[in-house]
Amino acid sequence: MGTIWSQKAFEHPINNIPDTDSYNFKWCIRKVAIIGAGPSGMISYREFTQAGFEIRVFEQDSIPDGNWHYTDETPVDAPILSADAVVGDYVPSLPPDGVELPYSEEYLDDSSDNISYFDRRREHRGPKPIWKSLTSNAPAVSAYRNL
């Protein structure tokens, strides 16, 4: 005779912290900040708005669309990945040794270094996954444009 195997699915909740150990706010939270107006940010905006929350969306570009908003603006020095995927060319931005934490830096827009606003902004822009020669069979208009 053969062996019969059976398998049963078990439900494992994502939040396995008992209610007694969770934090309860003293007041009802009704204001939400959403960072990024890409697809996820716009869907979050729609859902929170429908639930009656007061929303503020922060986006670095002039229009929503996240990474899929094409612009001719490119980073000053886009990294070319030459290391293993685990390492990549990522360099963390850590505070200098010996400073008091939390650490902050202040950037003044005094233009004494003769760097234009456009060039200063390019210094902080990461590369986007869309470029001039990219072709696609998807519609050109965003599906979430009328949110």
Structural key phrases:
little secondary structure; 2 strands; 7% strand; 147 residues; two-stranded parallel ribbon
What is this structure's SSE topology?
Blueprint: E1 31-35, H1 39-50, E2 54-58, H2 117-123
Parallel strand pairs: 1-2
Structure description:
- This protein has 147 residues and is mostly loops.
- The chain has one domain (29-147).
- 13% of the residues lie in helices and 7% in strands.
- The chain has helices spanning 39-50, 117-123, and strands spanning 31-35, 54-58.
- A two-stranded parallel ribbon has the order 1-2.
- Strand 1, helix 1 (39-50) and strand 2 form a beta-alpha-beta unit.
- The longest helix has 12 residues, at 39-50.
- The model has no long low-confidence stretch (mean pLDDT 72).
Structural class by SSE content: little secondary structure
Radius of gyration: 23 Å
In one word, what is the shape?
extended
- Main sheet record: 2 strands, parallel
Number of helices in the DSSP assignment: 2
Listing every helix as H and every strand as E from the N terminus to the C terminus, the arrangement reads EHEH
Number of E-state strands: 2
Provide mean pLDDT, rounded. Answer: 72
Portion of residues in helices? Answer: 10-25%
Count of domains: 1
Unreliable parts: none
Biggest sheet strand order reads 1-2
Short description:
The protein is mostly loops and about 150 residues long.
